[in-house]
Amino acid sequence: WTVGNAHTLSKSGTEWTDLVADAERRKCVFCATNDAAICKLVVQVKQELDELDDLLNADSAVFSKTRWKVVLSDEFRKSFTKLKSTQLRKEVLQKLIRLGDGWRTTVKNIDIPGASHIAKIYKVRNLYLVWSTDVEKTEGRYFQIIRIWDLVSQQNVARTVQHLENLFSMYTDDYLDHCRRVQTQGKLEVPMVWHIEHDIIRFNKDCNVDAHEEHNLVDTSYAMENSKVSESFLLMKFYSLSSGVAKHLLTATDGSEIDIPFELTDEEQIIVQFPLTSFILGRSGTGKTTVLTMKLIQKEQQSLIASQGLNFDAADLSGVDDNNIMPLKNGGDSFVKQVFITVSPKLCSAIKDHICGLKR
Known about the structure:
Structural class: alpha+beta
Radius of gyration: 23 Å
InterPro entries: TRANK1
Strand content: 5-15%
Protein name: UvrD-like helicase ATP-binding domain-containing protein
Number of domains: 2
């Protein structure tokens, strides 16, 4: 047995090139990350040796074989980047990796009066990780995901859970029922998947009311949720846990250093993929500019992908409008024409900086 990176060895220009080619012809090249037992062993050994940094490689078995999709809130990101101890950061990250692999603690949650226990609270030293199971729709199917809400001290746990209870009170019983369902494989919990034709409605009808009718129809919890945009869990941005995000989290010294694409809601996805001009109305701070910026960068990415001739699924190019892709006069690469109009020079500068960060 030879253990190594087959691609690197085949490109070495040495005797390894012929050896790998011969092994591939005889179907004797195996990917370690395709073997569940080897994957589990690699993660176990790395954690025991405290070599978590090695696990953050893009081709790491940790992220290629995680059972659950884990998304991190902006509040969690801010709390995490305030941690001074590198070891504590690694411990929190290991907890997230274990959650994604299906591990669940047997220790009971902190007892908070009036809480529905949809929100889970796991202790990491003297801090508390607040998370819940949620449901996401992708390509005509629904599946459970893990949503990490925050990392807080004990005195702030009750306040965070109360915010979540206000949010959960807006959900339909059917949606909450899908979030609560549990499926296990041995000692591990695995996400449930549903292939269904009808949509699982997330919000109760009372949440969709006109502004001038709000004070009459909407319940107290919804009014509280919308009282302050900056504190709204409904409008919170999330990032999908990956090797790249994990590296950002481990190296960031303050909350401003991470500049990566966030998870889009169904409504935001429609806006980003809409091929024509987009004009969005909404309250200040609800993310209109951020979503339009995401549309700018994704169209530019898609144009680059198309011009380089890479093999991507049609779904990745669903937002591209051929009328917006202009060929160069000299027959070279195409470019995408886009105009983002704002009356604020300060906002214009911020958008430019944000796009540069996303490109990096």
